[in-house]
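STRUCTURE:
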């Protein structure tokens, strides 16, 4: 720790300053010397990684005033005062006020070195504790559910009410709207919080893998199953099982899952053993499973089993009043992560915040905030279609046309030019999509390139 920490040494007697600096450096400390207190104060801040050693008697700002200002900046920053004989009562008072130590002139080198060493040790601990506390705070706020619109207030209330019940929950919402945030809050606000929160993305795993992931298996249950594997369901026992993208669960797995939900027991592959599980299931879907068209081959009985309580998270465009709050939060977070200042918000940024459709919802907004803080955001220069800057008012069909083009551009932009995702988001057939690109003169590859600003 000693390496990382340093001493600010202040004395108006330049010879003494040089000599003391040398003494401390010989003892292995890093020292910055100042002959004027104001200079030292200018270089200090609340997280200063070190301690201050200052003479008391100095013109302009003296050692006691310096101590006073340092204490206001950070009361845990150790200040050691160096005093002449006549100043001892003053120094004693300073100690009572929280100064770390005082040393009377002339002093033995060892006395100073020991005092500095202890002060730095103490400082090291304080800074370490602060860092830990900050990390803990951040971890706790890692998944906050920000929002002050009535919808979000209501959502939070509902979550509080049901978090600690045993009921299974279905969470629906568009991509990036906060389904995982909600699922994790349901876990953290419940008595199950001490158990595991086990997430499984049903859309990301091939059909052959998903069953053994969920139910576990014994050695030799199938080709390649060499070792016994405890399934995610058992792993979540006592905690919460989060089944993400449940709409993509293969039909055969759905049958098995239904049984788990009904019986609260699991049979690992390759066994006849039935093991009880104490489970709370939270499932998330991007589509409305209640609608037979959107449900596709998702089993109706499983839907009804999951649908005891459904929480629908509205898309961001339906809670626009939360955008500034969320944007501010993400910008602050990005600024501290990238060690930058939050830049001033230009009117183009403001227009974008208010006018953009945010098809990628809160995730898209958080990426936008990060690019904004990094200064790599390039907003399209074009004005929003509904507000032609020339003042001309276009006929309705033309306005609709422009609006459609801007929606397509936004979707392409949000999806980094990925056609499959864009089409899924727009909910139109592939052919229609390409027809529209052509009609509006939209070049898809440009959007893939614009993603380079993304982090
Ligand atoms: N209300 C909110 N307050 C703060 N952060 C939020 C909020 N909603 C979402 N986020 C953040 O936005 C990002 C996307 O949220 P999340 O992963 O929960 O979305 P999702 O609905 O699960 O998306 P997908 O369907 O794409 O998996 C995360 O980083 C999350 O922390
Ligand atoms: Mg998710």
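SEQUENCE:
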């Amino acid at each position: 720790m000693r390496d990382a920490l340093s001493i600010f040494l202040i004395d108006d007697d330049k010879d003494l300053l040089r000599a003391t600096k040398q003494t401390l450096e010989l003892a292995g400390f890093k020292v910055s010397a100042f002959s004027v207190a104001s200079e030292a104060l200018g270089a200090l801040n609340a997280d200063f990684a070190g301690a201050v050693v200052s003479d008391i008697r100095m013109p302009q700002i003296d050692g006691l005033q310096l101590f006073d200002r340092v204490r206001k900046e950070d009361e845990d920053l150790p200040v050691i005062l160096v005093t002449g004989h006549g100043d001892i009562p003053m120094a004693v008072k300073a100690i009572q006020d929280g100064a770390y130590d005082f040393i009377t002139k002339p002093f033995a080198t060892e006395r100073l070195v020991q005092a500095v060493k202890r002060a730095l040790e103490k400082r090291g601990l304080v800074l370490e504790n602060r860092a830990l506390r900050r990390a803990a705070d951040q971890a706790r706020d890692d998944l906050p559910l920000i929002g002050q619109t009535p919808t979000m207030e209501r959502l939070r209330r509902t979550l509080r009410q049901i978090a600690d019940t045993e009921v299974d929950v279905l969470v629906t919402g568009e991509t990036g709207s906060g389904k995982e945030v909600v699922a994790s809050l349901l876990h953290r606000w419940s008595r199950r919080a001490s158990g595991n929160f086990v997430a499984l993305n049903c859309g990301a795993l091939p059909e052959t893998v998903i069953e053994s992931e969920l139910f576990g298996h014994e050695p030799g249950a199938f080709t390649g199953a060499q070792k016994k594997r405890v399934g995610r369901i058992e792993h979540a026992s006592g905690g919460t099982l989060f089944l993400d993208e449940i709409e993509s669960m293969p039909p055969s797995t759905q049958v098995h899952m239904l049984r788990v939900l009904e019986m609260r027991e699991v049979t690992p592959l390759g066994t006849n053993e039935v093991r009880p599980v104490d489970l709370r299931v939270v499932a998330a879907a991007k589509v409305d499973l209640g609608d037979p068209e959107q449900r596709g081959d998702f089993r109706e009985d499983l839907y009804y089993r999951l649908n005891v309580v459904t929480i629908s998270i509205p898309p961001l465009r339906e809670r626009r009043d939360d955008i500034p709050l969320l944007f501010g939060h993400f910008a602050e977070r990005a600024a501290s992560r990238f060690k930058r200042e939050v830049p001033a918000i230009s009117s183009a940024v403001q227009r974008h915040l208010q006018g953009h459709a945010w098809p990628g919802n809160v995730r898209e907004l958080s990426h936008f905030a990060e690019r904004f803080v990094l200064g790599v955001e390039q907003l399209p220069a074009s004005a929003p279609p509904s507000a032609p800057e020339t003042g001309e008012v276009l006929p309705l069909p033309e306005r609709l046309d422009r609006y459609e083009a801007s929606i397509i551009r936004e979707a392409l932009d949000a999806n980094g030019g990925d056609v499959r995702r864009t089409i899924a988001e727009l909910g139109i057939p592939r052919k229609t999509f390409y027809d529209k690109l052509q009609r509006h003169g939209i070049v898809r590859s440009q959007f893939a390139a614009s993603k380079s600003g993304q982090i």
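REMARK: The pocket of adenosine-5'-triphosphate (ligand 1) is lined by residues 143-147, 173, 175-181, 286, 326, 362-363, 366 (CB under 6 Å).
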